[in-house]
Amino acid sequence: MQRFIFNEKVKLTLLLEQLNACMDLFNAKDYATDKALALVLKDCIQTFKALGYADKESQVQSLKAELVTAQRGMNPYTLQKQNMGRNEMFTSVMFKILQALEVQLRTYYLVGDEKLQQARELISQIIVAALQGGLLTNLDIKNIKTQKQTEVAWKKLGEDANISLGQKRVLLIVSPYDAIILFDELITTLKK
Fold first, then answer.
1. Is 190 exposed, middle or buried (0-12, 13-18, 19+ CB in 10 A)?
2. pLDDT greater than 80 at residue 2
3. pLDDT tens string 47-65
4. 86-116 CB burial, b ≥16 within 10 A, e <16
5. pTM for the complete prediction?
6. Residue 142: left (phi > 0), alpha (psi -120 to 50), or beta?
7. Which of 13, 59, 88, 183 is deepest in the core (most CB within 10 A)?
8. Which spans in 28-160 are helix H?
9. CA atoms of 48 and 65, how far apart (whole Å)
């Protein structure tokens, strides 16, 4: 079964907002940056664990280990005790972690966005084919007002053999929930 991408995008958006707030603290040279960064890392770990992404969770755990090592006064890259320039080293480590975490979160977000875009294009083709084949009319579209009606219309389209193949292609990319949301978004634009 495919992952519910819209749900994951919401969670990633929250993490990116939290990371942006942490970057604001870093840019302002706020002393609470390390605590905010530790909290962002903790929340990322929990989110990825809850979503079942062990690989992403381990990447963030590695970044957290770098932060903890630097907090203990050791350079996380050489593992040598830092006696002089400790604050500069710690600031550099936080900066590197912030950059790495931003790249990871943005990449995961864009991967989901790309899948949704692919599915959106296929669903738009399905809608056009259904309109051309008379399986869906402008009146049908205007009468779809609830989630249940959207689901019924989507399933009704699947009764046609050709459209059923298109729906299966969509479901190879996104979850059924994502497909319904995208279908609803696209038919909503046709109501205007």
1. middle
2. no
3. 999 999 999 999 999 999 9
4. eeebbbebbebbbeebeebbeebbeebeebb
5. 0.85
6. alpha
7. 183
8. 33-51, 54-71, 86-132, 138-143, 147-157
9. 17
